[in-house]
Amino acid sequence: MAVAALAISTLALWPVLAPLGCSESPAPAAAPERAVSQVEVLPGDVEVLTRATGGDGVQLTARVTYADGEVIDATDLVEWTSSNETAGTISATGWFEPSTENGGVTWVKARFAGVEGQVTITVRYQDERVEGDADPSVFQDVTSFEPAQAWLYPQDGVNLPRNTPSIEFQWASPTLLSTGADTGMLDSGGPETGGTDTGDAASLGPMTWWLHFVSELTDVSIYTTEQSWTADEETWLGIAATNAGGTVTVELYGTDGATAVQAETLEIKVSRFDARGSIVYWSTSAAGFMQVPYGQAAESFLAYEETGHCMGCHSVSRTGYIAFTYAGGDGQLGVNKMEDRSEVIPFGEGANANFKTWSPDGSRLISTYQGRLTLWDTATWQSLGEIPIDGTATHVDWSPDGTQVALVLTDEHTWDWSFTGGRIAVLPVLGDDTFGVPVILYEADPGINAYYPAFSPDGNWIAFNTSTGDSYDDPDAELHVISADGGEVYTLDAANFAPDMTNSWPRWGPLPDDDILWLTFSSKRAYGTHSVDKPQIWVTAFDPAAAAAGLDPSYPAFWLPNQDYEQSNHIPVWTE
């Protein structure tokens, strides 16, 4: 009996002992999570100052309220994030450290159990620079300023890419507006270069100047005794990055200790995004090309001192080749690789050619010579024949999608670069190296010449020139834009600036990441005190939305930084 009883007892214990072996069983149910009703970030929205030497950090705390009403400090429990780390960073314990390079706005969030709290932190960049022997204290006792004209450069309302490396702010001895002078920007070249004849400058002693950059996010003061200031790259990029997508106001004050003046205020727009690519332009001084990767220094590129030959009238392919003409107009075609500058068509081996354009894939090139168009196979550099045109044509530019070629049909064709009666047209590309009949988009009034067409990178617009002359170095040359399918012509008044600026050779920048396009051109307008009546490369912003609204789509232009203003610069080709 005992044995039997023992057996029964052992069997009865088995279900109890089984979980101690290898078989599975359900895990005990977890305790339900407590519902969170709110996450608060304290002290709420805040503004902090930052400088190059350090910023004013702020400690944030997170307060969590449960659904049952209990409130706890969860600063060390939440997940902290900052939406804009260029403005500042947030630590795991809620410490916000502002950037020392620029200002900005960021949303700081605290997340706990699927619930978020958020505050806005505005970082205002503050800086003060004293140049030379300038004394900022001379402005302490000034109670009022007399309005005056002084600015030479830049122009009010200019729009800049965010990565523009620097701007040289230039001003003249002030002209007091109380003397009855006209308002507007002064120009070191006088009215013939687009300035305003403002009469005599005020009789003032040596001046101390206060240049003030101000916005919701910027408070930067510069004190100097010079009549210009060039920001170092770090300072200017800090101002630009802080105000990307917005506007910074530039104020200029001056005093000689007896009289205090305030110049007209400038508004500078800063694009949200960088410009990219390189601008390759022709320099008559270098007898060849210069290259400016946007935001970087200019470098000689196939100049005479490198090649021993004069080169000009260039076109750059998307595939990395540059075609040009040797030894001036009606010279021979040359082609080099952009990357290593090696020759593809050396000097003396090319056909005669003036203006050129590449197909988007780089497999074809069209060249002009004495009003005729020739198509080339760029794999073999064999001619595929002359493109039939009724009459004479020049100034060709292939559309980005490859379906059209913009060109100029001419009446009285003296040279490919000198003619009258130019009309802007597009040549349909039919495929298999064939072309249709040109379609005229713009036929100017009698006595007006149209030339230098260029497709925008999205293919929607064609920029071009008009003048009363023969298309070569015409003082009254102006910039215009027309839709690629024809229609209304927009005169770029803001970019043209004033009559007789010799605004020539418009070329577009690569397609940007923004809704603003960039258009570059050469102009003889004055660049402050540095360059008068000498062609330089300028850039204007182009707003398609303004054109759609029937408004001038251009902005005041700015001088391309880092070019050599001692040189004469033309034909800016903006490459990707």
The amount of helix comes to under 10%
Strand residue percentage: over 45%
Give Rg in angstroms.
Answer: 33 Å
CATH-scheme architecture of the largest domain:
6 Propeller
Can you tell me the CATH topology of the largest domain? Neuraminidase
Please, could you describe this protein's structure?
Strand 15 (208-214) and strand 16 (218-224) form a beta hairpin. The strands form ten sheets. Strands 2, 3, 7, 10, 11, 12, 13, 14, 15, 16, 17, 18, 19 and 20 form a 14-stranded mixed beta sheet that branches. The chain has 576 residues and is mainly β. The chain has three domains: 36-123, Immunoglobulins (Immunoglobulin-like); 131-176 and 204-267, Immunoglobulin-like, CATH 2.60.40; 362-575, Neuraminidase. 7% of the residues lie in helices and 45% in strands. It is globular and about 85 Å long.
Name its key features.
576 residues; mainly beta; Immunoglobulin-like; Neuraminidase; 3 domains; 14-stranded mixed sheet; 5-stranded antiparallel sheet; 5 helices; 45% strand; disordered N terminus
Task: Itemize the secondary structure elements and their pairings.
Elements lengths: L1 H16 L18 E7 L3 E6 L2 E2 L2 E2 L1 E6 L4 E3 L5 E4 L5 E3 L4 E4 L5 E9 L2 E16 L15 E8 L5 E2 L7 E9 L31 E7 L3 E7 L3 E3 L2 H10 L4 E9 L4 E4 L2 E5 L7 E6 L4 E6 L5 E3 L2 H4 L3 E6 L4 E6 L6 E5 L5 E3 L10 E3 L5 E6 L2 E6 L4 E6 L4 E7 L5 E7 L1 E4 L2 E3 L2 E9 L2 E2 L3 E5 L5 E7 L5 E7 L10 E6 L5 E3 L1 H4 L7 E5 L8 E7 L12 E7 L1 H5 L9 E2 L9 E7 L1
How would you concisely characterize the structure shown here?
The protein folds into three domains: 36-123, Immunoglobulin-like (Sandwich); 131-176 and 204-267, Immunoglobulins (Immunoglobulin-like, Sandwich); 362-575, Neuraminidase (6 Propeller), CATH 2.120.10. It is 7% helix and 45% strand. A hairpin with a 4-residue loop joins strand 8 (88-90) and strand 9.
